[in-house]
Every structure is written in structure tokens, then in C-alpha cells.
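FIELD: query
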Amino acid sequence: MAKASEVAKDWGLGSQTRAKANPPARAPKVQEVKPSGKPRKEQATPETREKLQPDFLEKLLRAGPDEGGIDDQQFEALFEIEDAHTIIGKLTSARSSSLELSGGGDPTDMSDGEARVWAIWIAWGTTFHQRTGIAGTRIAELIKARFPVDEAFVGHYRTAAALWDEEKRKHHAGTKSGRDQALSQFEN
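FIELD: result
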């Protein structure tokens, strides 16, 4: 999994998150002493402080849609996108940046559930890219990294979640199994 700072650099978001990407230099080490006479432990490293930060998606959920965040349904959909990204990556053994371009794995070697996820992923990724100009794998990488994004980009998270739910409903409405849906994509 890419570090948040690497994903930010790839997206050119460094200026929005200077505090995260370039933490302030540590203050000079001052040896404090406990009442017992033993020295106090050193403060946490910048990496530890970053890990202790609340999950960005949870922050968005707590804020809610009225305060620039997301709702429960969007929160769940974003996790489903993250899970699908992991599943598809394992199935295709492709680099994450080429999942939409790889043409997919062999649907006959997939379980019905995996094929269903693949079919939804392809439909969702195509629609998401057409609407936003952003590859589905890119948004999935940001979701996985829990990288804090600005208010404008949170809109892409909302769009990704809404489109995921829409594609999932379309595939649930169909009578074909996930494998049949995936196979039909190769027939076209």
C-alpha cells in the first residue's frame, strides 16, 4: 500500500497538506524527569503521530454531508471500492494503475463472487472515469491511504460512492450470475 505522502505527491496535493507531508522539525530534546527521578520517555516520532491520527474517512463520516463529509451509505460504498480494488488486484496480478486497462482476468477462473465484483468494478471504473477524468484505481488508492483531501476532492469520493451503489444495484437487478455478467463483457 502506498504511503499517504507518496499518493499525495502523485496527485500533486502536497501544498494542501504541508503539515502531513513535511512535519515540523522536532524541538530540541529536553530531558524531563518524573517525580521518581527517572527520565520521561521521548515524544512520539512524526510517523507515530501520523499513525495515531483519526482515520480520514471516519472524520468525514462524523462531519456528515451537511458539514462537507459523507453519510453512512457513502462510507460503506468507499470501503467496498477499497475491497474490490484489493480483490481485482489479486485476481489480475496487475499493477493497480492498470486494472481498467488490463482487460480483466479469466472469468472462468473466478468464483461467482469474484466475477461479480469484477463486473461491477469495470462498469463503475468506466463511468467514474467518464464523469470525473480520474481512473477508478486512483480514487481507490486514495481511499486505501486514508489521505486527507480538500473539500473539492471529497466530492469525488461522494461521486465514487454513488456510482458504486448504482452499479451494484444494476448488477443485483440482473438475473445473470456474476460469472455470466463478467463473461458477457468479453463477448462485446
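FIELD: remark
Residues 55-187 form one domain.
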